[in-house]
Amino acid sequence: GQQVMQIPQYQHVQEGEDFTTYCNSSTTLSNIQWYKQRPGGHPVFLIQLVKSGEVKKQKRLTFQFGEAKKNSSLHITATQTTDVGTYFCAGTGNQFYFGTGTSLTVIP
Amino acid sequence: GAGVSQSPRYKVTKRGQDVALRCDPISGHVSLYWYRQALGQGPEFLTYFNYEAQQDKSGLPNDRFSAERPEGSISTLTIQRTEQRDSAMYRCASSLYVMGPALAKNIQYFGAGTRLSVL
User: Fold this and answer.
1) Helices H / strands E in chain A, number of each
2) How far apart are CA B26 and CA A47, in angstroms?
3) Which tens digits make up the pLDDT trace of A54-92?
4) A101, B33: Cβ pair inside 8 Å?
């Protein structure tokens, strides 16, 4: 079964509000990737984190990899309507697992 | 090609029929992955190849599912004796580098998928 869980499953925010999705693995991961899937589209790579405690930023997006390499988070500051979509984490442990995803809706 | 190409885009079949789904990865990409994605769910890993070698097929649901990549490029996912529960979006992805437990930056590029409906 799926080893990588994400919370929340759904999130509705007002445009301009912040958004965070959390990714938790039952096992230690070698690395973690984040993907974004727009409605009706396919997953598109955002970033990869490799080091324990690593933090990376892409404009309004901040990605963190936990110290134990079992969890990760994606934080979006001041959401925009273009941020709408489902955000997946994906980790490499014994296999390659995608998380359950967080679907973000931004209300203009 | 410019991106990962999957065909057909849509496939409707009757229960019990065999189907073959094709994936044409980005030229030069050595790793190829197959996923199944149910509506509202994350991609479920099925299998992957490094070059022509199938590295891990533990994600294949049962022995009705098989995949091949004989020349290290195009891959085919075959489902025999389809059942209604096989209905899903089947996605293929490719990456430039070999996937491994301590992989370097290994971006997966996804195709548009094949929507399979088994009636």
Assistant:
1) 0, 11
2) 20
3) 999 999 999 999 999 999 999 999 999 999 999 999 987
4) no
- Per-residue pLDDT of B80-109, as tens digits, reads 999 999 999 999 999 988 766 555 567 899
Q: Which chain B residues touch A4 with a CB distance below 8 Å?
A: 42
> pLDDT tens digit string along A45-63?
999 999 999 999 999 999 9
Tokens of A24: 């938790």
- Taking residue A27's Cβ as centre, other Cβ atoms within 10 Å add up to 13
**Burial track B50-79 (b if 16+ CB lie within 10 A, e otherwise):** beeebebeebbeeeebebebeeebebebeb
User: In chain B, what residues touch A45 (CB-CB under 8 Å)?
Assistant: 107-109
